[in-house]
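Handout, section B. The chain below has 288 residues.
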Amino acid sequence: MRIVKSAATMQRLAKSWARAGVRIGFVPTMGYLHAGHLSLVRRARRLVGKSGKVVVSIYVNPTQFGPEEDFSRYPRDFARDAKLCRNEGVDVIFAPSNDEIYPRNTESDFSTHVVEEQLSRGMEGASRPTHFRGVTTIVAKLFNIVLPSVAIFGAKDYQQAAVVKRMVRDLNFPLKIDVAPIFREPDGLAMSSRNKYLEGDLRKQAVVLSRAVQKVQAAVRRSSRPLQSAKVKGDLKQFIERESAARLDYVEFFDPHTLVPLSNVGRGAHMALAVFIGKTRLIDNGPL
């Protein structure tokens, strides 16, 4: 396994693979890898085959964090991540520095960004106004550096995957976006690097996110007619705050393709929510 820190070196390597007809499977991450990430790595290997190359990026992107968010304390352990990648047969870890990604000099600062203006408006986009501009910009840069044939994202970040797919379509990036199912702990908690923040009773309380999804799924299955979105949201807020010391940030019901919010909740819709467990903000989602 090779560790590459230079964008120019990574791009030259990717171009040499492309000239040789080698497919590249790419898993972009912010590090502190868990079993969910490793499932994406294995999926990438299956998609490109033994003759292909699997690249994992490890980069905590500052531009997708808000000013009051957890960029400085986001969990990092590169030595551990590298060992996990090596064990999974990753070919290259691309681990650039901030200066490598957002170059600055005395003449001009980094001033070009990629913005998706439709799917990114609600949910995470409403709660974290600068988040998706940071996501689409860094993902576009990584695609131009790694030159993947296919990039794998996890469905836990449902809106993010939709935004990236739209960016790829609209800007004619020559690759496929593959979205893998949510990887969960045995008790249902969606795997996340931020789960590290959950200590003691907070870890038990965090299961309320997946329980909320299951609660609505069961209600939709039982009902012979669509449910009123506003009422379900109110019921869920009471459920979440009654069952834990959590605070609901948002819950939304939407069309899974357009992400347009729905006033009535029925089969075929999708739901997503964000909840603060103590100071830790977690997200989850599921089909209805």
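Note. The CA atoms of residues 168 and 175 lie 8 Å apart. Compare this with the example in section A.
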